[in-house]
Write the structure tokens for this entry.
Amino acid sequence: MSMKKIILSAAVLSVSVSTWAQVRLTLEDCREMAQQNNAALKNAALDERAAWLQRQEALALYFPTASFSAYAFHALHPMLSIGITDILGKNDFAYNLQNELDNYASTYGINTRYDALQYGYGTMVSLTQPVFAGGRIINGNALAVKGLEAAKLQGDIRRRQTVADVEELWWNVVSVEDKLKVIEELGQTLDRMESLLGAAVGAGLAGDTELLKLRLKRSELSAAGRKAVGGRRLAKMNLFNAIGQPYCYNEAASQPGRPFIDDIVLCGIEEDPLSPEAYWKDEAQILDGMDEKKLLDIQVEAKELEKKMAIGEALPELGVGASCGYGQILTDSRFNAMAFASLKIPLTDWGKTVRKAQRMETQVQKARNDRDYLGKQLMLKIGKCWLDLTSAYDQWQLSRENSATARSLYDSTERQYEAGLVPLSDLLQAQTELSGALSGEVDALIAYRNAIRSYCEL
């Protein structure tokens, strides 16, 4: 089993990478994993699903509604009992007639009272088709369509923001790794200097003080390397949590499906970006294509539809339908059917509806005001992103010049030190300045990459 050993500082700091357990992730891999595993994006997909289902609910209102009902009852006594006196009243004629019927009842086996509604049963199927409901069905469906559009736009915004966050976390890891490379390079330089200085001290050409100073600088660099390794692991943890990549920060507890965090390597680093002019886009086109701008338009349209639905509450409602059933209550069991139409005209809700419509109009006006104001803010955001992009590019160019200058100064000081023209302290100072310049260049490049991403995603 082969091992790769990257020396960060001699005999102090090392990172071992097991080639068999290595997991390689590109920036595109991280983007795709984030869209599959990120909790916020899963919730955004659920919101889109809920909006689609609500659209189906509203669409169902166009179609007839069918219902089935069944009933049965049995009373202790008939709920309807009618005799002669109940029809003719309590008078002599009614009593005489009742007595005559009672005499014949026993002979002919008839009942002198009519009893009903002691038991019964029935079933019925009905179908109702709304014809006009004050426009609420049409406007409700249009509102559901706007809700679905808004959910999709919000999902796109969430996805774009998630990818942006992942890219920022990615470049944070790359930034720390680049700084580790700087520390490694400086460590190799100190190793070479320590070897030369050790030989000079052995030959009596240099004192122990300079060697101690060098070793002190070596310890400082080693401490910076250890801190950078910890920072890289923390940056990786933030990235892997965002994309759903399993990892283990204890190498002894790592498993094939949960590798050690140092065995997960970021690869496919892009080349240096272009100048800002290569990314320029027309401001008006950017604004028209922004999901945030579309959401503002949908918000106004939704408020207008809500106002129309409020007005529809005071308009007539018309529906037609048919029903059929089978049952027995007063007579023998039989089947029957009927068609019907219903018209409902609100008479006392006009005042309430007018006030409600006026209240909804204020919401429409607020939505329009928000659209106008936030539209200007979006234009301001576009301008700010462009200014940030150009400023970050200028800072990157300045940092590159500083790094080149610091590199030249260090090389010159190193040659002078080897020639015995400058003391060790000057060389160590030049190395400190070179380390700061290289780290500043790394930070400036990452800041420029993030500025490019922020502008291009508008």
Observations:
- The chain has ten helices and ten strands.
